[in-house]
């Protein structure tokens, strides 16, 4: 039996080899026959394509823009023209697979590839030698291009305001943003970063070193690596609409020595808020302080923290007095200038030993908390997800793998034993469920900065959303209380009301130390780029009584669980 099986296996192997040999022989015979026929055609005097005929192209290459325009100028569409035609004429169909057509097609394709290759090389050489000369600087931009300059991230010259758009940055966008804030210069770097200021950088660089293409505008230069493409936008300022007016911060008790507290000052007999704000904006300070006819410019500091406001009547009396120097109170205004003392951020240089989560229910202010933490610590935060909108606005940790440990903490909305126990510790951010549900519904239907329409609120989607998401709000907190290893519970409302003390507590939990001035800078930039703006939904009560009963039961459940774990219970406003 074994011998018979062995013989059968031997025969089958021979059969496979025989089939393979016959197939190869068949293909070789066909190739030889084709070569013989083509040789016969050439001997009969076939000339291929004349100079005045357009080159045929395969269907997949039609319209890709690599045909020489000179070749097509005097051509007449014949039966063999394959460019830009949906159907061929009948005579061409009869001849399409003839030996004559094959020889012509092969030779023409070789000419086409050769012509395209030479043109590609000739286009690339000047780009490499001239440093992106093909990119335009000022052809379509209103500002005056000043040149390429060196950019030192530790000591920037253009530091009046900083913007990021890693997907849609253009030269015009940066110019307009800086002009609207009354800056003189706009500088672009890395193809996606915009910097504003009133002083031209001191160190000029070679033009070819600004070689990063703008992310939102092909063919335009937006600086380079540690290089700024700088434009003068002063001529745009006259017609530019201010993005925001000067903001009144309040009346405060003046520090004992104003000259030592504020770096710049101006004395003007008929001083106005606009004059003082303009003066401080040119000096690139975010605060304009007025006491009588004296104008001072500076930052919030330990000496002048803007925490203890006074009655506005005290400032108005001092403003009207003839002896302003004796005034004990001053008016404080926020200029359009951004406080940039805390805008520098980077990834951790060494991997973090402690894996920290920044956990919250969606709509509970996680993005805002990330903004505060990044600016306070100077390090990026990561994310369990990838949100392109956040990444494009400067949250560079979005693209970093969430388990890389190169970020100070990782955003997550996940719950459940497995997802929670991956982290060594966590900041658990809790917000009023009524506000969280509204914020998440807005984000779902209108993005991070928009508002859902009345139609969305009055549709059946809103009751379904509440029924499913309200239980998630409760289960999210309960799971983290149950499975979290080391928790810091932060209530959104407490963070909003007492920003500096709560932020300091969060930073200490992350095992970081920060200066008082940096925390004050964060307070000065507290809103970030993700505060909702625009028209809010109309005044109506989105929650029915049935919804309120359901949510209130979850609130009591979560409050009891927090107190059971020796945490502060939910705020009374819930």
UniProtKB/TrEMBL annotation:
Domain WSC: 142-234, 245-342
Protein name as catalogued: WSCD1 protein
Sequence similarity: Belongs to the WSCD family.
UniProt-listed InterPro entries: P-loop_NTPase (IPR027417), Sialate-O-sulfotransferase (IPR051589), Sulfotransferase_dom (IPR000863), WSC_carb-bd (IPR002889)
Listed Gene3D superfamilies: P-loop containing nucleotide triphosphate hydrolases (3.40.50.300)
Claim: Disulfide bond is one of the keywords in the record: no
SMART domains, per the entry: WSC
UniProtKB keywords: Repeat
A Pfam family of this chain: WSC
Source organism of this protein record: Pandion haliaetus (Osprey)
Superkingdom per UniProt: Eukaryota
PROSITE patterns recorded: WSC
GO MF, one example: sulfotransferase activity
